[in-house]
Design brief:
The protein has 117 residues and is of the alpha+beta class. It contains 2 helices and 6 strands. The chain is 21% helix and 41% strand. Strand 5 and strand 6 form a beta hairpin. The model has no long low-confidence stretch (mean pLDDT 90).
Length: 117
Amino acid sequence: MKKFTKISENRVDLGVKQLTTELIYLTENGVQVGSLLLVNEEKSSSIYSLEVLENHRKKGYGKKLMEKAIKHCKTKGFSSINLNTEFDNVPANKLYQNLGFKIVGNNFGLNNYTLNL
């Protein structure tokens, strides 16, 4: 019979964290054409799902949504904003870098960005 030695034990904690979400949206002639979702923690926010309808792209709407999100997060006193985007999404990567976001990592085919406010 083999003897197994226990080397270490991992501790696993389960919990629920209180987060708030906010939707920032843009309309054209009363129709929503773009939006992004902010997920807020105590001192920072993360941007999820920046979307502009395909037939409304290349009008600067993504930039307007991002600028509104940045201003909103500054007003709320957050210290940073985080987001991820695919390596090959050239327009999005260019937009985020032009707005001052810095790449802080690369995971699972995504660039991980942070903007310190």
